[in-house]
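Milestone M4 deliverable, item 7.
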Amino acid sequence: MRFVPAFILDAVFVLVFAVIGRASHQEDAAGFLVTAWPFLVALLLGHLVAALLPGRPRRPWSLAWGAVVWVVTVVGGMLLRVVSGDTAQVAFIIVATLVLGVLLVGWRAVAALLRRRSSARAASAPAGDGGALDGVSGHAGAAALDDTGASEPAAPDEGTVEHDRDPRRD
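Output delivered:
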């Protein structure tokens, strides 16, 4: 159930998308669930698709997982809107695709940037100060702890020699 925290954050962003969209059209923002429900259902489906894909992205907070979730959420949400009798005009499809892309993939890009900065800081810390504050080494070949406490290899950086690379990641 590693995807639950990412799903919750994604669901919050889908709800924000619906509230902002309704407010921008001077519609009652309180009815945001009418706009959001097809995208929330598709969002759940997107997380399930990402989790079940062969060769799937391994981390729900990764950009690849976010891209799968984004595409399934937009396509599935639009299909559910149309099937339920609502509209899906071209302008709405474009705006929803862009906004949901920024929200669903954007937070993952920010998280990746912060992780990369944190790893770089930990790797460049002087040897006598204890290294990384969380006890995880910043070296690319070392195991990094994910949110569940399970150990996975960290992504290699540009300074990693070839024998340190995990062939499954290439």
